[in-house]
Amino acid sequence: MTNTSSIVDREAAHFGSMAADWWDPKGKSAMLHKLNPVRLQYLRDRIDQHFDCDECQFRPLEGKSALDVGCGAGLLAEPLARLGAKVTGVDAAAEVIAVARGHAEEQGLEIDYRVGGVEDVEGQFDLVTAMEVIEHVAEPTAFVAALEKRLAPGGLLVMSTPNRTAWSKLLTITLAEGMGKIPRGTHDYDQFIPPEELQAMLGTVGLEVEDVTGIAMGPMKGLHLSDDMRLNYLVSARRA
């Protein structure tokens, strides 16, 4: 790991240990399976608006490139490929990249999976995603700067992360990790980032925030998009 790398070795090892059942909706990554449809709903809306796509179009990313940073075993990268994008996925854990490659092959999807951090990727992409990643990196501000370098002119950046609130700590760590819904040690509350701090980081590297939307949890709806950002939130941005 170089001094400029976003990778934290213990984080890579932690997520690597979850590789075997990553695609099991009842396994260690069960919460990601519940979260993924919410993220995809948001992504599709932002893609349609940012790139002025027909919302009924099956492959709105046809002819565009996408980079999924911290891609895990491909829960987001595969849908992006089905939306038409030429997808590159990068993750620090070699174990999950191996699973990602195998699963994509089974699905007949061509995705360029790589082991490493965003700093190891060259070129620029029309869409850059980093979902539930920034709270696990070595230096968040440097990580955001690295994401900006990978964003092509006219491109779209979408991120998600837990908010730093008592509510997110209760649901994400005390309850979810405490009850075994998420593997213990997955989250460090001190690494959670409030929306205003992330927006400031994005502005510092020359990106303009287009939208901020919360992800809330409710007894009837489960995880869903909301104006309530106390638990988790998504941010979309472009070059200012």
SSE string:
HHEHEHEEHEHHEEE
Helix proportion of residues, in percent? 25-40%
Briefly note the CATH topology name: Rossmann fold
Total number of strands: 8
Named CATH architecture: 3-Layer(aba) Sandwich
What's the CATH class label? Answer: Alpha Beta
Distance between the termini: 32 Å
Number of separate structural domains: 1
CATH superfamily, by name, is Vaccinia Virus protein VP39
Going by helix content, strand content and strand pairing, the class is alpha/beta
pLDDT < 50 runs, ≥5 residues:
none
Task: Name the overall outline.
Answer: globular
β-strand percent reads: 15-25%
Total helical segments: 7
**Radius of gyration, rounded?**
17 Å
Average of per-residue pLDDT values: 93
Main sheet? Answer: 8 strands, mixed
Kindly report the spatial arrangement of strands forming the biggest sheet: 3-2-1-4-5-8-6-7
Give a structural overview.
- The chain has 240 residues and is α/β, with parallel strands linked by helices.
- The chain has a single domain (9-160, 193-239), classed as 3-Layer(aba) Sandwich (Rossmann fold), CATH 3.40.50.
- It has helices spanning 9-16, 30-50, 77-82, 94-107, 140-150, 166-177, 195-204; strands spanning 65-69, 86-91, 112-115, 125-131, 151-162, 207-218, 222-226, 232-239.
- It has an eight-stranded mixed beta sheet with strand order 3-2-1-4-5-8-6-7.
- 42% of the residues are buried.
- The mean pLDDT is 93.
- S-adenosyl-L-methionine binds at residues 39, 70, 91, 131.
- O-methyltransferase that catalyzes the 2 O-methylation steps in the ubiquinone biosynthetic pathway.
- It comes from Sphingomicrobium lutaoense.
